[in-house]
Amino acid sequence: MNKFFYFLIGYGFLSCPAYAESIKDSLNGETKFFINIYGFAADIDGVIGYQGLNYQVDQPFKDTLEALDKALMGHFEINKGKWGIFSDIQYVKTEEKKDVLPFPVALSTKVNLSNLGIYYRAYEQFADAKGLVIEPTLGFNYTDLEADLSALGMQVSVGKSWAEYFGGVRIKYNTDSSWNLAAQYTYGIEQTQIAQAYLGYRQNIWTNPINFRVGYRYVSQDYKDGAFKWDTVQQGPVVGIGLAF
Prior knowledge:
Blueprint: H1 2-20, H2 23-26, E1 31-40, E2 43-50, E3 53-59, H3 64-67, E4 68-80, E5 83-95, E6 105-120, E7 123-126, E8 130-151, E9 154-174, E10 179-188, E11 193-205, E12 208-225, E13 228-244
Antiparallel strand pairs: 1-4, 1-13, 2-3, 2-13, 4-5, 5-6, 6-8, 7-8, 8-9, 9-10, 10-11, 11-12, 12-13
């Protein structure tokens, strides 16, 4: 089912320009650069399976500010015509301030989730990306994580990394006013799901447009490799600022 799903996404993604216009025409326009820097106040909860034990990860949102060590999110993008390349980097580290307990628990986690993708503007309601805009995406995710685990009075550190292809879609709504909306969803072949939505307010400062955004991000992962399992959900509000060049 997953292979058929990705075949349909890939076929539609790559065949759209053939029906609408030539590749050359779809690349018409100036090259634009976008940089968005965010702070991600993320919860992390779920289970880390290791050596036959299930270690609990539980950082409620109400305790996030107390337990959060570092949380960064950056989005970088190059666009020309209807095509674009983007990269998103999310880094979240939590430190739970609790004594070592007799049952399995994760005392700290560090998750670095990055991706690299390409998109095509398959639909725009009006010219110059105004109104509703739909952009299918393809790319790959890379996850690198570390965790300090405790069970039966013992502590151990584990680490794991993996890569996976993903397919998805970006949806934007731009008007002549300063307000704008954006959302994105991707699904990876190792069951990484990323959903995010933003409300933005664009304002010119000096000669560059600045886009202030608030939103929410949800990341679900269910990865298994031998005796290792990473079944977690990260979610929380995002506040950021975007620059266009």
